[in-house]
Design brief:
The two termini are about 40 Å apart. A six-stranded antiparallel β-sheet has the order 6-7-9-8-10-11, with helices on both faces. Strands 3-2-1-4-5 form a five-stranded parallel β-sheet, with helices on both faces. It has about 325 residues and is of the alpha/beta class. It has eleven helices and eleven strands.
Length: about 325
């Protein structure tokens, strides 16, 4: 985390920071008014922080990484009050959760307001005036959220009423066109920023299908499982869920996780695997590793795994030509 260096006597704010153009512009608009800003970068298995941290550093922005972890899975992903979007994305509740976390920091560390890069009507469902006001109601942040790009079109915030921030120096951007943002980017010299929508995996149809399987398979899927399914094919056999590596990177990552039982071929190139659920499905793992390995049809290969006592066991299996397919 970059060290804080706030000026005494100035108001200070928290900025929900994605590294996208709108959140960068919100930062620069406020810095132009000599406001001290701490950027909050959120981390879950569905959106990681590396690119956003890189952009914050390049722009010399004070930042803090907030890892949402298991409470996010339990409280937002599994039971979003406002439902999901097109895929498994609980966007309204997700944004509200981040606002709530920012409010906790604001109250504990005596920040004055929360800023976002939101633009009125840029997203018809979640950024219309009614939705923005409802967000403040259910997060208990009425008057605390400043949206510098659209502030002149929205009710005056507490920090504006206190004259710490000059409303005349804020903007009235409205709608999905980004022409004004691009002009402001030129003015501020911004050339490097994340793409819109930030790359949340829950908006990806393929990843969402896998994540739905986890939600149905486990009563309370752990944070690590949503990381694991990034790295392989998924197979479901009754009470056994199998993640099968697709390449060397997948195999390496699957070895690093703690959940389930790890399997790997030891005498031929092929996929590693993680078995989750009923260990009685291990024969399916042997079969899948053999099918997807580089062994010839009829060739015997060896597969290593751990039993319930964490003792390494080697299993011989003969590869047979079968249809290669996966659940996802």
């Amino acid at each position: 985390m970059k060290e804080q260096n706030f000026n005494s006597g100035h108001c200070k704010g928290l900025l929900l920071f994605s590294g996208g153009l709108d959140s960068l512009l919100a930062y620069y608009i406020l810095k132009k008014q000599d406001i001290d800003i701490m950027a909050l970068i959120f981390k879950t298995p569905f959106f990681t922080e590396e690119k956003t941290v890189d952009i914050a550093k390049k722009n010399q922005i004070n930042f803090r990484i907030i890892e949402l972890g298991q409470p996010y899975i339990d409280n937002i992903l599994m039971k979003p009050a406002h439902g999901y979007g097109k895929n498994l994305n609980p966007c309204i509740d997700c944004h509200g959760y981040m606002i709530t976390k920012a409010k906790e920091i604001l109250e504990k560390e005596h920040f004055d307001f929360i800023a976002t890069g939101e633009v009125l009507n840029q997203r018809p469902m979640s950024q219309n005036r009614k939705a923005l006001m409802e967000l403040e109601e259910f997060t208990g942040t009425k008057g605390l959220i400043l949206r510098p790009l659209s502030a002149k079109l929205l009710p005056e915030t507490d920090i504006e009423k206190e004259k710490c921030i000059k409303r005349d120096n804020l903007f009235s951007v409205n709608g999905r066109s980004r022409n004004i943002q691009f002009e402001l980017a030129k003015e501020f010299g911004i050339t490097n920023f994340n793409s819109p929508a930030g790359g949340c995996l829950l908006t990806d149809p393929g990843y969402s299908r896998k994540a739905k399987v986890l939600l149905n398979f486990f009563d309370r899927p752990e944070n690590e499982l949503f990381e694991m399914i990034k790295y392989g094919r998924m197979f479901l056999f009754h009470k056994t869920l199998i993640i099968l590596g697709r390449n060397h990177i997948d195999n390496t990552r699957l070895m690093e996780f703690s959940q389930g039982v790890y399997f790997e071929p030891i005498d031929v190139a092929g996929p590693s695997a993680r078995l989750l659920g009923d260990f009685q499905g291990k024969d399916k793992v042997f079969e899948l590793i053999a099918i997807y390995s580089d062994a010839e049809n009829g060739e015997k290969i060896q597969i290593k795994f751990e039993d319930s006592q964490k003792i390494d066991i080697i299993k011989d299996i003969t590869r047979r030509d079968m249809l290669r397919r996966s659940l996802i």
